[in-house]
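no rush on this but wanted to send it before i forget. what follows is a protein written twice so to speak, once as letters and once as structure tokens for the fold. mainly i need to know what kind of three dimensional shape the backbone takes. thanks a lot i owe you, the record is right below.
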Amino acid sequence: MKVTLLGTGTSGGVPSIGCQCEVCRSSDPHDKRLRCSALLETDTTRVLIDCGPDFRQQILPLPFQRFDGILLTHIHYDHVSGIDDLRPFCVFGDIHIYANQGTVDGLKTTMPYCFTEHLYPGVPRLNLHVARPHEPFRIGDIEVMPIEVMHHSLPILGFRIGDFAYITDMKTIDDGELPYLQGVKTMVVNALRFAPEHHSHQTVGQAVQFIRRVGAQHAYLIHPSHHIGLHKEVNARLPEGIELAYDGQVIWVEQQR
């Protein structure tokens, strides 16, 4: 399965508006980060993880093809605000969105015009499916196992697919979730900065500890702010097998455990 990291940045993106730090002024494209999103592709199935405010910019360079499903981690703006830009893809059929109950309810509040009895022309046709932790489901030939992590006090979803796991915006995880990550070889997981500690996101050190608990062989850190430092310098500090991800990075993973 091909995993393309369409965006790897924190909620405000990098560069940060109005900032003149060395990261925000960097000319290295690895230091320019759109909001977090990923594209999963097999020979027959295409799935998007999160659809934030940069979706249009992220998807325009790619082939115009059907999405078989959209996985949403949670309702926050930087993860769902691009959903209206899915409307062109309705030429292929309705858009199927998989999210936890809180996110499903939140979408009906933030996008009420998409869920009225009589939709006006051009509105994206969204079919909402409630995804529950530990209840696997299939999208085409991709089997998804949702797991639950905590974004401060907000329960949100991570997703395991075969030997691969995608987790963003996590601060903590219950020990009871760890068996569902057993055997994961490749992981994408959030790390906001080295220090200080943040109330709702992992630091780099906390992310490294989590990766080691899971036992992943290779991990890619996403959702950093500009405070994390320059991409090349961060990678020089990270342990072997862990790297700071970048926009457009492609990862190849096994679908089967």
Helices lie at 55-59, 77-80, 101-110, 204-214, 231-237. The chain has a mean pLDDT of 97. Residues 204-214 form the longest helix (11 residues). DSSP finds five helices and 14 strands in the chain.
